[in-house]
Amino acid sequence: MPVPAYPASDFPERPTAIVTGAASERGIGRATALRLARDGWAVAVLDLDGAASEAVASEIAEQTGAPTLGLGVDIADEQAVIDAVARVDAELPQLVGLVNNAGISSPTPFTEVGTEEWKRVFDVNVHGTYFVTREAVRAFRRHSLGRIVNVSSASAERGGGVYGRAAYSGSKAALLGMARTWARELGEYGITANCVAPGSIDTDIMGGRLSDERKTFLLQELPVGRVGTVEDVAGGIAYLLGRDGGYLTGVTLDINGGSHIA
Ligand code: NAD
């Protein structure tokens, strides 16, 4: 009996990607949005602050000539997500990519973390990711083409160990399972789903720039001998999202400078 081949759509000349959490000044999301725009994508920036999202979108458009849209949305707010993804779908070219990057950390030890903090971390990192993905998948299915990348964390695989504790690690581990399930269930619609799991990246999520002392500690025995940059992560995401990434699904790229083997 012949093996059925799923219908494969052509990758459009100018696909659109949504990048959540892309407004922060020194963050992974912003670097990813810029990298994708340089690679030829139209980009939608979704972040909490509408003005900041619009400013980043305009800046990227100026630098790259790519069509962009910046929208203020709390991804934990289901209706706001439905409205935002509908706008992206209506106003930008064919939606092909989704980078689930928006996230919050939780440095509180398990014995001290309260219900409120626990729920907020899961509301944003897990439920928010579910809302955005569900809406994007509706658009992907119309063209039988979609690429999803969840930004998980080495913390999910190692059980914290750098900054994030149980709520953060648990929520980021959920993203690994969700992506693998989407990979399994959505392949027949031309959709791939993968993760990146960054190690320590020099951003503001840890409440400020990494001090030199902290960097020295993190670098001990790290094979590449340096802290990761947002561009390191953006490059991995761009590969999984792009034309060359179509035969990768259900994988996790460990962008961590070799910390797993250290
Ligand atoms: P960041 O704080 O600079 O970026 C996070 C962004 O998410 C911010 O722009 C923030 O406004 C946005 N955001 C937060 N809650 C939101 C919500 N409810 N709705 C919409 N947007 C929201 O930090 P970053 O380091 O660039 O983190 C980006 C992602 O990478 C996060 O998911 C983080 O967990 C993950 N990550 C970071 C590291 C690291 O070392 N920096 C390591 C592994 C994983």
From TrEMBL:
<feature type="domain" description="Ketoreductase">
    <location>
        <begin position="15"/>
        <end position="199"/>
    </location>
</feature>
<dbReference type="GO" id="GO:0016616">
    <property type="term" value="F:oxidoreductase activity, acting on the CH-OH group of donors, NAD or NADP as acceptor"/>
</dbReference>
<protein>
    <submittedName>
        <fullName>Short-chain dehydrogenase</fullName>
    </submittedName>
</protein>
<comment type="similarity">
    <text>Belongs to the short-chain dehydrogenases/reductases (SDR) family.</text>
</comment>
<dbReference type="InterPro" id="IPR020904">
    <property type="entry name" value="Sc_DH/Rdtase_CS"/>
</dbReference>
<dbReference type="InterPro" id="IPR057326">
    <property type="entry name" value="KR_dom"/>
</dbReference>
<dbReference type="InterPro" id="IPR002347">
    <property type="entry name" value="SDR_fam"/>
</dbReference>
<dbReference type="InterPro" id="IPR036291">
    <property type="entry name" value="NAD(P)-bd_dom_sf"/>
</dbReference>
<dbReference type="GO" id="GO:0030497">
    <property type="term" value="P:fatty acid elongation"/>
</dbReference>
<dbReference type="Pfam" id="PF13561">
    <property type="entry name" value="adh_short_C2"/>
</dbReference>
<keyword id="KW-0560">Oxidoreductase</keyword>
